[in-house]
Amino acid sequence: MNTPPGAYIREELERRGWTQKDLAQIVDRPIQAINEIVQGKKSITPDTAAALGAAFGTGPEVWLLRESEYRLALTGVDTSAVIRRARLYDMAPVKEMEKRQWIAPTDTVDAMESELRRFFGVPTLDTDPQISVSMRRTDDSVPITTSQRAWCFRVLQLGSAVMASEYREDRLDGCQRELRKVAAYPQEAHKVAKVLSSFGIRFVIVEPLSGCKVDGVALWKDDRSPIIGLAARFDRIDNFWFTLCHELSHVRHRDAFHVDANVADQQMLPTEAKSPIERRADDESASMLVPHDELESFMRRVGPLYSKDKLVRFSHRIKMHPGIVVGQLQNRGEMGYSANREMLAKIRHVVLPATVTDGWGCTIDPRSL
């Protein structure tokens, strides 16, 4: 709108048969001020808008709005770049992605758009980039966030560059047996990536973005190339192995189009609140590490008095690390989360050096792999 407010004042004066001098006397303003407003040389202030509104019976809002619309029209500012930039910031955590070197810093909106197209692997950003995942995150009551989506794409990007043997579903039982041997000893965790790749599963670890509550993801480079990505948010042997086996269950069942509702931290969802796919992944993950019948028998014989000695002896008998047993008992509500914390060994420092990792000071350009 580019009609000056003064044009509307002229119409009001003509309708009433008033002169500018009459209006100046009515609103108690100098005649020169009224003349300059009518000619568009002077802006209408809130005080003047109140006076004009009272004189013409329109209220002050009408004159403030006309003044604002006129002044905005005079600026001639092109806001198309602002609109595009806002759209990109809504689509992705741009600044943190630049900080993590996932995209290059840019000076123009065109360059920023180009970087995001490259990162997401899409020809256009007219719609939000889509990715099919089965993801283990803290809260599934809300849609996937922009940070979670960017994290998943980074897993896909790095995982796609990792070399692996041919994937065959009939070899998964063998993969699980090999992984279970590794899970028994924290110092053996460096073998995880090698074991998975020998069975055709690409494995990467990507530190989550700020506020990105996600623990693991299973996705596919193509129909024969599964990828498992972990966030390693919690440096605990129980969380690492439960999440890894959980995602392995999704790979086994090709749950690539399901975003599940699991919770990796202490606030676990009740079993009845989870989807059938999620309950299946939980059950398969737990039983792969600690056979259900063995754990049930141990709980009946020992619970609720789980001494360290009994925990260690049971763990040695089933050939599993005590921290993983403790984690399962805690998730079952058999013991408090503060109990036996010293058994929850830290293994991040063992896993990261032997795994394609993005985060904790390490950034990898997938083109260099």
Would you mind describing this structure in some detail?
The structure is a single chain. The chain has helices at 5-16, 20-27, 31-38, 46-56, 60-75, 80-91, 94-99, 109-120, 146-160, 172-183, 192-198, 237-253, 276-289, 292-302, 308-317, 322-331, 348-351; strands spanning 134-137, 202-206, 214-222, 225-230, 356-358. With 369 residues, it is of the alpha/beta class. It has three domains: 5-75, lambda repressor-like DNA-binding domains (434 Repressor (Amino-terminal Domain), Orthogonal Bundle), CATH 1.10.260; 83-120, no CATH class; 134-368, no CATH class. A five-stranded mixed beta sheet has the order 1-3-4-2-5, with helices on both faces. Strand 3 (214-222) and strand 4 form a beta hairpin. It is elongated and about 105 Å long. The relative contact order is 0.10.
Record keyword descriptors for this entry.
about 375 residues, alpha/beta, 434 Repressor (Amino-terminal Domain), 3 domains, elongated
Present the secondary structure layout.
Layout: H1 5-16, H2 20-27, H3 31-38, H4 46-56, H5 60-75, H6 80-91, H7 94-99, H8 109-120, E1 134-137, H9 146-160, H10 172-183, H11 192-198, E2 202-206, E3 214-222, E4 225-230, H12 237-253, H13 276-289, H14 292-302, H15 308-317, H16 322-331, H17 348-351, E5 356-358
Parallel strand pairs: 2-4, 2-5
Antiparallel strand pairs: 1-3, 3-4
